[in-house]
Amino acid sequence: MSFRLKAITREDHLAFVRARPSMSHMQVPSWGDVKPDWRAESLGWFDESDRLVGVGLILLRPLPKLKRYLAYLPEGPVIDWSAPDLERWLEPMLTYLKEQGAFSVKMGPPVVARRWSAEAVKAAIADPQAGRLRDVEATVHEPRAFDLADRLRRMGWQQTEPGGEDGFAVGQPRYVFQVPFAGRSLEEIQRGLNQQWRRNIKKAEKAGVKVIQGQYEDLPAFYDIYVETAERDRFIPRPLAYFQRMWTALRAENADRMRLYLAHHEGEVLAAATMLTVGEHVWYSYGASTSRKREVQPNNAIQWRMMSDAHALGASIYDFRGITDTLEESNHLLGLLRFKVGTGGEAVEYLGEWDFPLNKVLHKALDLYMSRR
Q1: How is the chain split into domains, by residue range?
Q2: Minimal CA–CA distance to 300: which of 247, 245, 342, 329?
Q3: Quick one: how many helices (H) and strands (E) in the chain?
Q4: pLDDT tens across 212-238, in order?
Q5: Most exposed residue of 190, 334, 356, 371, measured as fewest CB within 10 angstroms of its CB?
């Protein structure tokens, strides 16, 4: 028998979030307020006893001139992904979304497939034969993830392949870098950093770099160097209004949901970053740094302050978010991967994003449009 699915209130959704150790920051009710181009809805799965047993934040994007929607559950839904009867969870969702006018459903099961230790990633970067992380032998395989992928395919779901030269697909990153905190003291985490990291933290301290928590009015200072970073690292920056909306929406739900950090040196902001928290999972979300005064190591200083604060908040994972899958020296994102590897954490591959075409013609048209962007 399938679960019953229906729209739920923000309050019920949030109560479910609070009762769990963690879930993605993209599956909390306030994330819908960050995305005004989408219509957000909280969905709940109910069992035979009418207990709320799963939730999903659905983002609905309308097709121009048609009352048809792309339905997107970024890093969700939050259901029992290990359940042998996954159809009980996913079929009512597809039925519900089809009734709402969805022509295609995209979701990102929050399920880990493989992990590579920092040592394995370092060895892969040094190996001239290793072109991509996905082709390198993993340190840990999660067999249930591959079983889940087979089941999704049998149900008609299609896996989105990591696209682009650097392994970043449209949507959420499939490859991320995480530092496990559970059961470790801050001293143990610091000992896990490589020598360069520890040296740079001391250097920043000696040079007088001060890391402070910023407020709403400090977002423009963050934004100025974020735009500089975008130019240097070749990505399109989001507008300042996006970060202002993020701050207002997420902090209205929980004061610790979003924090801003700024690294100052002699009255100048040299680096800034945003940090997101849901339960025991903390994400380094957006980072920015200027090319000036790099020798005082503001990036290591800001990350160490954020990691220390995350540990104080009771984090079990500090998540550096997306990494490149490409290991070639010519890749401009390889330096960022090396920086993250220096923390002694692990590279993590998630199951990726999956599509279910409810209307094959419209789904194919969307695919074609996305491939030409």
Answers
A1: 4-108+353-372, 112-350
A2: 342
A3: 12, 16
A4: 999 999 999 999 999 999 998 888 999
A5: 371
- Residue 56: what pLDDT? 98
Token reading at 328: 């070639």
pLDDT value at 128 more than 50: yes
pLDDT in tens, 146-204: 999 999 999 999 998 755 444 434 589 999 999 999 999 999 999 999 999 999 999 99
* Superfamily of 4-108+353-372 according to CATH: Gcn5-related N-acetyltransferase (GNAT) (3.40.630.30)
Q: Name which residue leads in pLDDT, 164 or 297.
A: 297
Q: Confirm if 229 and 288 have CB atoms less than 8 A apart.
A: yes
Question: Angle between the 219-233 and 240-253 helix axes, to the nearest 10 degrees?
Answer: 130
Rg (CA), the chain: 21
- Please check whether the two domains, 4-108+353-372 and 112-350, share a CATH topology: yes
- Specify whether the CB–CB gap between 316 and 281 falls below 8 A: yes
* pLDDT, tens digit, 9 for 90 and up, residues 255-280: 999 999 999 999 999 999 999 999 99
Residue 316: both structure tokens together: 């079990």
Residue 310 main-chain phi, psi, to 5 deg: -65, -40
- Average pLDDT over every residue of 243-247: 98
Which pairs count as long-range contacts for 202-206, CB under 8 Å and 24+ apart, including other chains? Answer: 203/295, 203/296, 203/297, 203/300, 204/263, 204/296, 204/297, 204/298, 204/300, 204/301, 205/301
Angle at 336 between CA 169 and CA 284, to 5 degrees: 75
CATH H superfamily, domain 112-350: Gcn5-related N-acetyltransferase (GNAT) (3.40.630.30)
pLDDT at 162: 58
Cis ω on the peptide bond leading into residue 77 (within 30° of 0)?
yes
Longest dimension (CA), the chain: 65
pLDDT exceeds cutoff 60 at 244: yes
Which is nearest to 93 in space by CA: 109, 108, 77? 77
What is the rounded distance in angstroms from the CA atom of residue 116 to the CA atom of residue 130? 14
For 134-166, the DSSP string reads GGSPPSEE-HHHHHHHHHHHHTT-EEPPP-STT
Q: Is the pLDDT of residue 127 over 80?
A: yes
Q: Which residue has the tokens 């659905």?
A: 58
